[in-house]
Amino acid sequence: MSPSPRFCCQCGSAELVRRRPLGDSHERLLCNACGHVLYDNPRVITGCLVEHEGRYLLCRRAIEPRRGYWTLPAGFMENDESAEQAALRETWEESGVRARILAPYSIFNAAGVNQVYLIFRAELVEIDAEAGVETLERRFFAPDELPWADLAYPSIRQILERRLQEQVQGHHGLYFGTAEAGQLHTLG
Ligand SMILES: [Zn+2]
What we know:
This protein has 2 domains: about 40 residues, Single Sheet (Ubiquitin Ligase Nedd4, Chain: W); about 140 residues, Nucleoside Triphosphate Pyrophosphohydrolase (Alpha-Beta Complex).
């Protein structure tokens, strides 16, 4: 979770108070000096499950948290880009892989850290660079090589397990919910 700001971003005052503005459903941080409301909302993380010849791209994290564990390339969306652009940019930055989006795949929120995840299914276009500084190593794993014991997060396991199951069944789904529980919609 992001730390609470100490100063008003409008006027610089340190007179910040927590209360529920009139007509609002939530308590907010308010500036006593100028009345500005400092909203704190979830942040969006986008990423890709990149496939190539039946293999799946994972990156081994070079940074905390979960350094040394395998994850999907993903990161915070920037203000000036679409979710798809952000997912492809993060994939390229972290893995050096150029990809093409195929479909949305998993939309879930991690409530404890106030993050919303938008994961897309994508296919490899080309590998055109080394993995980025946030990645120790990148690799396309065949289903029987996947590093189940060394995945960074349970949500990564859920995404991979689902994808393997769907590959057998021959259809694709769209999941949404939380990291723990949600609904799966079959897209055909
Ligand atoms: Zn202010």
